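Letters spell out the chain; backbone shape is given numerically. Both lines appear below:
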Amino acid sequence: MKAIRAILGVAFIVAVVWAVVVLVPPYYKNYELQDTIADEARMNTYTPKSVEDMRDTIFRRCRDLEIPCDRDKITVSREGGGVMINVNYTVHVELPGYPMDLQFNPTSRNRQY
């Protein structure tokens, strides 16, 4: 009985570690993209950089991070003297017996004072 419990305990620990290894990278990449978006909005509130150039910068960062994002899912706008950036993307994750799609929506808004 002790051997079975030990095997089940080890199997549970392995399953948890494996799930963490599969699930943490998409969240970490989202965190890095959110940081890039916040920097882009903050720095370009006071510069004449065009909306298309900001969109290109964000799209290049998505490719660098291997984030599955289409260019048309990146929304950049200048309104009221500020910059707003929004990105929508989905990451498919395969867990044994439970495939799932993780929805991400990093956003940043900076206003000119």
